[in-house]
Design a protein that fits this description.
The complex is a heterodimer of chains A (about 650) and B (about 210). Chain A is built from 22 helices and 22 strands. Chain A is an alpha+beta fold and about 650 residues long. Chain A has two domains: about 250 residues, FAD/NAD(P)-binding domain; about 250 residues, Guanine Nucleotide Dissociation Inhibitor, domain 2 (2-Layer Sandwich), CATH 3.30.519. Chain B has one domain: P-loop containing nucleotide triphosphate hydrolases (Rossmann fold), CATH 3.40.50. A six-stranded mixed beta sheet of chain B has the order 2-3-1-4-5-6, sandwiched between helices. In chain B, β2 and β3 form a beta hairpin. The longest helix of chain B is centred in the last third of the chain and has 22 residues. The radius of gyration of chain B is 20 Å and the shape is globular. Classes of the chains: A alpha+beta (about 650), B alpha/beta (about 210). Chains A and B meet through α4, α5, α9, β8 and α11 of A and β1, β2, α2, α4 and α6 of B.
């Protein structure tokens, strides 16, 4: 980091989670000089996604709870007499009870390293190669990288090329860089090349391929493992904001393809769209009619108060029992569509939740949800890019020692960073985890229980292995939280081919493992290879290859006044909440932005890059360097800015 | 909406601060040059449509938004890129040495079959040269990628560079097309406001 930062900004944002990143983008967009820092070496904080090796380092870091001693206090001399300091945390304490498990041949993987990042790779141990050799049905034999580059990624061209002549196909593109061209070392390529030639397009239709731990390690960069597991409601606030701000141009999404339910020990698909209900084989004609009638009612339940008036004080579950629905339909509606608690959710809340679900159907697909390609961790980064485009300055691995507060006014004047540089600003945004215990001593935090599994099959197999599924597993004991399970396939670019990434989430009652392992045991096969032969009835369950459990602090919904002695121009952003959607983060960002800049518009569409015309005078006026000057850019008319969508692959043709 | 092009290629510019990425971008997209940018502000990407083999190709060229300065380029920047220009400054040895680091970055975050090219920019400033042309060529050969010395200021080789990269992408594309892809189900979704369907699902009467 050669050059020093400017000493003055309008807004300093500490933490690169979703709400902080949205605020940073909004501020830069409205012309503020923004400094955005994170003490970690990656974007996103607890909203980040990691490659497999990245996640292993994260686990290690969070299992070692070493305290960093604050040896250097040199910065104290920068504090004037009429100032006081609020120290910030040196060490993140939001992650607890991290437990990782490998089910399989971990020993054989000890010599294997993640491929791809380094030009020279170590030669893999024999055991690593064995994993491949044992597997004659391997669908995509590793080819020499040049060959692979030329031949086996053909589908990728569709991903990034907008072919005008094939308009109809724009929406059926497949990104398969992780399917066709596994990065392998040259030594192993040579080893496998012969086989590749012998059977160039051997496709296994029979057995699911055995994925070894060594393969997961080697293909580690194919994984983008989210710390938080969320989906975007297609009519949720985040989608609206992405569209309005044009940040959507930085990301691509995939539809969740299935809503699943877990009932009587079995995973079933929930018919929720009109087409699904029609085509469902599991529902009888009578059930189809009941379900359609009920869902149609939910869409405009407010117009029919007489239908639910008498049940206003009952739970939604009780209300459903009165609606002539079979038990399986009641289960589907309660757990998989409304996704509400059986015991605490009132009738009106349940109707609202059902309506929200139904209203989101059909905007982008047959379920209400979208998932960002490459993981949820992309989303905060997309807002950071927007902030940078409008002059925001980014520093990762950059800690803040303290906030400097003026004793008289009680306002924060500056931060002092880990280089001892004093940086002043008018407003400060700090993510909750950076606040020290003394500031948070009266804050009562909830916890989120999380598990991430890498599995070898889907929880519900169908013709297509590329499914994105959401499954709600109702609690065993009433009053416990339901567990939300999201299963991602490799085309979401979050896991390697022939594996699935399964995220489990619930509000914590105990440690993550205690909360979630019972559900994992119900849905998956946990035993290792050796024990597998003994039991046959378990064979159709997906096998867990690797798992991690952890608890994450839920700092959402905390009243500002709970924090002690917070200066009025310091705003606190919370970490991820346990809800499925992202509304909480977007709402918080907008609220904070409006408090700081009540007259400014929140994330208006940026000018279309194609419309920005630079002439000499304007360029000269930007010479002031790091100050941004969006006023030099002409605002396009709304039509112009909205027409931008056509430069990327889009799907109007679907209509 | 009728499209005015046959293909859209997403290209990236990567390299240290001050090597002239934005100047190259402006030279190519606007045929203009200005020395007054200090860092890149407000420029997401620029567009220029070129013609290759009778096909109209819209080049969407993305700039780093200044995030190269502290090595904080977002992974989202690399996603979906089909071609990357790695730029160094021939009057700045450090920027040349860093090309290796940028290549590593690309390997980590960009798609594995992205086309790459190395550009030694500012070749009009021969009197201040620190990196010989041979050195640049050698590095390019080591990585098996193409190389050109350019000057955004004097408009040397800028057209050639972008046309070469576009042609290489095109060649790769044609080869893949001939191999024929049978893409599977549900590809990625780009969200834009015109995408939403008008009809709610349950409006029609049925059953």
């Amino acid at each position: 980091m050669a050059d020093n930062l400017p000493a003055e900004f309008d807004v300093v944002v500490v933490g690169t989670g979703l709400p902080e990143s949205i605020i940073a983008a909004a501020c830069a967009r409205s012309g503020q000089r923004v400094l955005h820092v994170d003490s970690r070496n990656y974007y996103g904080g607890n909203w980040a996604s990691f490659s497999f090796s990245g996640l292993l380092s994260w686990i290690k870091e969070n299992q070692e709870k070493s305290e960093i001693s604050d040896e250097c206090e040199d910065w104290r001399k920068l504090i004037l007499e009429n100032e006081e300091v609020i120290s910030l945390n040196k060490k993140d304490k939001t992650i607890e009870h991290v437990e990782a498990f490998c089910f399989g041949d971990q020993d054989s993987a000890k010599d294997v390293e993640e491929a791809g990042a380094l030009p020279k790779l170590p030669v893999f141990g024999a055991s690593g190669a064995e994993g491949v050799a044992q597997d004659p049905n391997k669908e995509c034999p590793p080819l020499d990288s040049a060959v692979a580059r030329a031949e086996s990624c053909e589908a990728e061209k569709a991903a990034s090329v907008d072919t005008a002549s094939t308009v109809e196909e724009n929406d059926t593109e497949v990104n398969c860089e992780n399917e066709g061209s596994p990065s392998v070392s040259s030594s192993e390529s040579a080893l496998d090349l012969g086989k590749a030639e012998a059977a160039p397009s051997e496709v296994s239709a029979q057995e699911p391929k055995k994925i070894m731990y060594s393969q997961i390690v080697r293909e580690g960069r194919r994984f983008n493992i989210d710390l938080v597991s969320k989906l975007l409601y297609s009519r949720g606030l985040l989608i609206d904001l992405l569209i309005k701000s044009n940040v959507s141009r930085y990301a691509e999404f995939k539809n969740a393809t299935r809503i699943l339910a877990f009932r009587e020990g079995k995973v079933e698909q929930v018919p929720c769209s009109r087409a699904d209900v029609f085509n469902s084989r599991q529902l009888t004609m009578v059930e189809k009619r009941m379900l359609m009638k009920f869902l149609t009612f939910c869409l405009d339940y407010e117009q029919h108060p007489d239908e639910f008036q008498d049940y206003k004080n009952s739970t939604f579950a009780q209300f459903l029992r009165t609606r002539k629905l079979t038990p399986s339909l009641q289960h589907f509606i309660l757990h998989s569509i409304a996704m509400v608690s059986e015991t605490d959710c009132s009738t009106v809340e349940g109707l609202q939740a059902t309506r929200k679900f139904l209203q989101c159907l059909g905007r982008y697909g047959n379920t209400p949800f979208l998932f960002p390609l490459y993981g949820q961790g992309e989303i905060p980064q997309c807002f950071c890019r927007m902030c940078a485009v409008f002059g925001g300055i980014y520093c990762l691995r950059h800690s803040v020692q303290c906030l400097v507060v003026d004793k008289e006014s009680g306002r924060c004047k500056a931060i002092i960073d880990h280089f001892g540089q004093r940086i002043s600003a008018n407003y400060f945004i700090v993510e909750d985890s950076y606040l020290s215990e003394s500031v948070c001593r009266n804050v009562c935090y909830r916890q989120i229980s999380r598990a991430v599994l890498i599995t070898d099959q889907s929880v519900l197999k169908t013709d297509s292995e590329q499914q994105v599924s959401i499954l709600t597993v109702p609690p065993v004991d009433l009053g416990q939280p339901a567990v939300c399970v999201i299963e991602l396939c490799s085309s979401t670019m979050t896991c390697m081919k022939d594996t699935y990434l399964v995220h489990l989430t619930c509000p914590s009652t105990k440690t993550a493992r205690e909360d979630l392992e019972p559900v994992v045991q119900k849905l998956f096969h946990l035993n290792t290879e050796a024990e597998k032969e003994t039991e046959n009835e378990e064979l159709d369950k997906p096998r867990v290859l690797w798992a991690v459990y952890f608890n994450m602090r839920d700092s959402s919904g905390i009243d500002r006044n709970s924090y002690s002695s917070l200066p009025s121009n310091v705003y606190v952003c919370s970490g991820p909440d346990s809800a499925l959607g992202n509304d909480c983060a977007v709402k918080q960002a907008e609220t904070i932005f409006q408090e700081m800049f009540p007259t400014e518009e929140f994330c208006p569409p940026p000018p279309n890059p194609e419309d920005i015309i630079y002439d000499e005078d304007e360029l000269a006026s930007e010479e002031s360097g790091l100050s941004n000057s969006p006023e030099t850019k002409p605002e396009p008319s709304p039509e112009e800015s909205s027409s931008r969508g056509s430069t990327a692959v889009n799907e109007h043709s679907e209509e | 909406m009728a499209k005015t092009y046959d293909y859209l290629f997403k290209l990236l510019l990567i390299g240290d601060s001050g090597v002239g990425k934005t100047c190259l971008l402006f030279r190519f997209s606007e045929d203009a040059f200005n020395t007054t940018f200090i860092s890149t502000i407000g420029i997401d990407f620029k567009i220029r449509t070129i013609e290759l083999d009778g096909k109209k190709i819209k080049l969407q060229i993305w700039d780093t938004a200044g995030q190269e300065r502290f090595r904080t380029i977002t992974t989202a920047y690399y996603r979906g890129a089909m071609g990357i220009m790695l730029v160094y400054d021939i009057t700045n040895e450090k920027s040349f040495d860093n090309i290796k680091n940028w290549i590593r970055n690309i390997e980590e975050h960009a798609s594995s079959d992205v086309e790459r090219m190395i550009l030694g920019n500012k070749c009009d400033m021969n009197e201040k040269r620190q990196v010989s042309k041979e050195k640049g060529e050698k590095l390019a050969i080591d990585y098996g990628i193409k190389f050109l010395e350019t000057s955004a200021k004097s408009s040397i080789n800028v057209e050639e560079a972008f046309f070469t990269l576009a042609r290489d992408i095109m060649t790769k594309l044609n080869r893949k097309m001939n191999d024929n892809s049978s893409s599977g189900a549900g590809g990625p979704v780009k969200i834009t406001e015109n995408r939403s369907k008008k009809s709610s699902f349950f409006r029609c009467t049925l059953l």
